[in-house]
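Problem 12. The chain below contains 154 residues. Write out its predicted structure in token notation.
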Amino acid sequence: MSDGLVSMLSSLVEAWDGSMLLRFSGLSNASALLYHQLEDVSWVGFYLTDQSGENLVLGPFQGKVACGSIPFGRGVCGTAAQEKRTVVVPDVHRFPGHIACDPASQSELVVPLVLDDRVVGVLDIDSGTVGRFTTEDAAALAACAGVLVSKLFA
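Solution.
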């Protein structure tokens, strides 16, 4: 991954006017861009924090049908949200409490979207390959998440 990906992502969400509609449009385009630019991924999408601040609700994504709601603290997405940290799981079958939305998923990377110390959602990426995600991937996708938070949630 490169700075070019972050730049492309930034330009996709440049026109946000504060509306929910354009936020969803930007997140939709972001999921499509990442899905088609990243190699060996099977799902790319967003879960957004609900009004209670305790659950993630499915947002824009690319891939197979997904879980509709995930409580903070449950599965990889809920863990990343609760702990406000990126979680890289080389083998999802070894992650306690993994939620198997797609049984073909083998590895997962989840980056929390954090604004003012509050999780507004997560970026979730799955692969059918064990060990697909590296620390470099995590850093690059955290940069992407930072752009999305600053452009679509601030």
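Discussion. The longest helix spans residues 20-37. Students who got a different answer should revisit the alignment rule from Section 12.3.
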